[in-house]
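dumping this here so i dont lose it
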């Protein structure tokens, strides 16, 4: 049985970006539904006693969608912090980011542009590509996740409308601007550090810390 993760912060501390009500719907209802659905779908199947990473890598259709959405949301909620602090980035990540995007400010501009352009429901990611060892921006539709393609997630914005409708209505760009006031840079930079050290193992480790 998988359990809904708890959130590592006070959900009333995000100002105009996201209200407590937004978290209670997004985490308490949407995220929880994926967990409940997955538990129902794996019952009496080959996946019943498998870990979440295995299920994501080896399943399809509804089972994949629910398993991947658990991971995507777990990771998204960890990318947020009410105490966002750019100075908490480690030097290795800062250097890699500046090498690929020139500056943090240009990175944000490119990220917001890319995430604004995702058609319909999906996700917008900064990943470390294990194949060519580069930082990349990419989008995935619906429940799709970069962890099935040898890419290690570092930062993600949920751009399903359910992620921002309560506080920003249909204004995705306003949500994305505010998103960058609440990014947990320490978490993002650590994900990069672990990706360098452990590759795909860092994804497995992250998932098992939340769902063992
Ligand atoms: Fe969501």
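and the seq i came up w/
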């Amino acid at each position: 049985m998988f359990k809904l993760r708890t959130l590592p912060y006070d959900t009333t501390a995000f100002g105009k970006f996201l209200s407590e009500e937004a978290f209670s719907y997004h985490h308490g209802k949407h995220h929880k539904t994926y967990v409940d659905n997955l538990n129902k779908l794996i019952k009496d199947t080959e996946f019943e006693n498998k870990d979440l990473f295995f299920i994501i890598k080896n399943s399809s259709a509804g089972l994949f969608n629910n398993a991947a959405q658990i991971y995507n949301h777990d990771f998204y909620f960890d990318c947020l912090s009410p105490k966002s602090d750019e100075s908490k980035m480690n030097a290795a990540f800062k250097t890699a980011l500046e090498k690929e995007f020139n500056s943090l400010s240009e990175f944000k501009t490119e990220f917001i542009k890319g995430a604004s352009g995702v058609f319909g429901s999906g996700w917008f990611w900064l990943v470390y590509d294990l194949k060519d060892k580069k930082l990349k921006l990419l989008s995935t539709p619906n429940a799709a996740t970069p962890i099935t393609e040898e890419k290690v997630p570092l930062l993600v914005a949920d751009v399903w409308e359910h992620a921002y409708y309560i506080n920003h209505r249909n204004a995705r760009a306003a949500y994305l601007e505010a998103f960058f006031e609440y990014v947990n840079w320490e978490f993002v930079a650590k994900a990069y550090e672990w990706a360098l050290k452990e590759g795909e193992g860092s994804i497995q480790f992250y998932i098992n810390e939340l769902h063992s």
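Strands lie at 122-129, 134-141, 151-158.
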